[in-house]
Amino acid sequence: MSQDNGAPIHSGGCLCGGVRYELDAPIEGISLCHCRQCRKASGSAFVAVAVVNTAALRITAGEGLLTAYRATPGKQRVFCSRCGSPFFSARDGQPEVRRLRIGTLDTPLGEVAKVHAFTADCADWDEILDEHPRFPGFAR
C-alpha cells in the first residue's frame, strides 16, 4: 500500500545515510520496550518499535551494510555495520513481521497508539510519566 501519489507511506535510514528504506504500510501502534536487551541494544531507557509487515518494508539503499546480531536464539537484531543504527528485529518463527525501530523514520507518524512493554524490567533510573498502558511483559 502506498499513498495515492504512489510514494511510500514512510521512509527512513541510518545515521550515516548508507542504509535507506521505504515502508508501504501505515504504522498503527508503537511499543516502548523496557526490557534489558532493548536497553542494552539502544543505550537508552527503552526502544520504540512498531510491528510491520515484512512485505511492506523495502531496503532501497545499502543492503550490503546491514548485519545481524543474535542475543537470543531465534531472534536477530539488524543494524547498519558502518554507523550502528538499529533497524529492526526479526524472529525466525515470524518471518512475516519485523519490529521496526521508530527512531530511524524520516517521515512523521502523527498520533498512534502507544504502550509500554516489559515494565517489570524498567531501568531503576527511569520513570514512566505518561498514561499509556503498561505491561510487565509482552504488550497485549
How would you portray this structure in words?
- With 140 residues, this protein is mostly beta strands.
- The chain is built from one helix and ten strands; from the N terminus they run βββαβββββββ.
- The chain has one helix at residues 36-42; strands spanning 10-13, 20-23, 29-33, 47-53, 57-61, 66-72, 75-80, 86-91, 97-101, 113-117.
- The strands form two sheets. The protein has a seven-stranded mixed sheet with strand order 6-7-8-9-4-3-10. The chain has a three-stranded antiparallel sheet with strand order 1-2-5, with no helix packed on it.
- The chain starts with 9 loop residues before the first strand and ends in a 23-residue tail after the last strand.
Topology:
Blueprint: E1 10-13, E2 20-23, E3 29-33, H1 36-42, E4 47-53, E5 57-61, E6 66-72, E7 75-80, E8 86-91, E9 97-101, E10 113-117
Parallel strand pairs: 3-10
Antiparallel strand pairs: 1-2, 2-5, 3-4, 4-9, 6-7, 7-8, 8-9
